[in-house]
Design brief:
Blueprint (H helix, E strand, L loop, with lengths): L6 E5 L4 E7 L16 E5 L1 H11 L3 E7 L5 H8 L4 E4 L6 E7 L5 E5 L7 H15 L4 E5 L10 H9 L5 E5 L2 H9 L8 E2 L3 H8 L3 H6 L1 H13 L4 E5 L5 E5 L2 E6 L11 H14 L4 H16 L18 E6 L24
Parallel strand pairs: 1-4, 1-8, 2-6, 4-5, 8-9, 9-10, 10-11
Antiparallel strand pairs: 2-3, 6-7, 11-12, 12-13, 13-14
Helix pairs in contact: 1-9, 6-8, 9-10
Length: 344
């Protein structure tokens, strides 16, 4: 397969060393556990996306705050991953994943070091520099303590003049602030999971996963807020892609789950790689689900290579026609349901 053309730039404002601790059996609180062989990988959601993109041979640069002597910098250099770092004094945090043999994972995430205003400005400047001429910029993951929750919205606005398309994958307060900042801060692509979509719409996660109409109505509200394309990942139930080309759903092949850490990030990478290759929406979704399933079949936070990804095993179904473009600010449109949980 030819290497996709175009560059992807990822920002990981709160990077981590991801330490996966392999348990020999189900976790028993209060006991003594003798671990199976464990692993440590450079992580943070944007780093995971970049690792998967790089594994496919595509052009990617990952932007993050880290000192030159930080272990994450050395780990990324060993992987050959192009890196643009802004130096900070504090070490990168460590996140721990307790992985049980049946695929159950428990995550223990450290908060990360606070970034001062000067460091945030330096990160924004480096990101803007590398975004010029790029196909995609990915803003991904949590924000460090003390960072204004609207920072992602500010970055989306600041990146508009680069010509790059912008994808965002975050949760909780930064996600709510992003979608509450107005259409000019809406990304070209948003990748929520069911929990995050519930945070945005007021529906329950159980309702969104059990009722396809509720999920579609909830996704429609994101388009109303200015998001052009939504990639909704649903774990073992697959994913939904909604945008100007139409709405599609996909189910993954049977997968023996070893770890779900980074599976959503690999799904986003799969979508972006297919977009670089010029694939239409249905094939972008197929690639996303195939990458997510391949990631879940691997231990720890390992990312798949193209040889480990099987798009042909993913079933894709057309759900409905194209989503109309977002209405200009100050106008209304009634052709898309406006409320997630009240429309069936």
């Amino acid at each position: 397969m030819s290497t996709p053309a175009g560059r992807i730039v990822t920002l990981t404002a709160n990077p981590s060393l991801d330490r996966t601790l392999a348990l020999p059996g189900p976790l028993e609180r209060g006991g003594v556990v003798r671990l199976a062989p464990s692993s440590t990988e450079p992580g943070g959601k944007g780093v995971n996306v970049a690792r998967a993109v790089a594994a496919a041979g595509a052009d990617v640069v990952t932007v993050l705050p880290a000192g030159d002597d930080d272990p994450i910098v050395a780990a990324l250099h060993r992987l050959g991953l192009p890196l643009a770092s802004v130096p900070v004094d504090s070490p990168v945090r460590t996140n721990y994943t307790l992985a049980e043999p049946d695929g159950t994972t428990t995550k223990l995430n450290e908060p990360g070091a606070a970034l001062d205003a000067g460091t945030r400005a330096a990160l924004a400047a480096v990101l803007h520099q590398h975004a010029a001429g790029a196909r995609w910029v990915v803003l991904s993951g949590s924000l460090p303590p003390g960072t204004p929750v609207a920072w992602y919205a500010d970055l989306v606005r600041a990146l508009r003049d680069t010509g790059a398309r912008i994808a965002v994958d975050t949760s909780e307060a930064p996600l709510l602030a992003l979608l509450g900042a107005g259409p000019d801060a809406a990304p070209d692509l948003l990748k929520p999971n069911a929990e995050e979509l519930a945070q945005l719409t007021g529906a329950t996660e159980a309702e969104l996963t059990a009722d396809p109409d509720a999920a579609l109505a909830a996704v429609a509200t994101l388009h109303e807020r200015g998001v052009a394309e939504v990639l909704l990942t649903l774990g073992g139930d697959g994913a939904l892609l909604s945008g100007p080309e139409g709405v599609w759903s996909a189910t993954p092949p049977p997968t023996t789950v070893r770890s779900t850490v980074g599976a959503g990030d690999c799904s986003l990478a799969g979508h972006l790689l297919a977009d670089l290759a010029g694939a239409p929406a249905a094939e972008r979704l197929r690639s996303a689900v195939a990458y997510g399933a391949a990631s879940a079949s691997l231990p720890g936070s390992a990312v798949p290579t193209p040889a480990q990804v099987d798009p042909a095993a993913v079933a894709v179904t057309a759900v409905r026609g194209p989503v109309p473009p977002p209405a200009p600010p100050g106008t209304s449109r009634t052709t898309v349901p406006a409320a997630g949980r009240d429309v069936r």
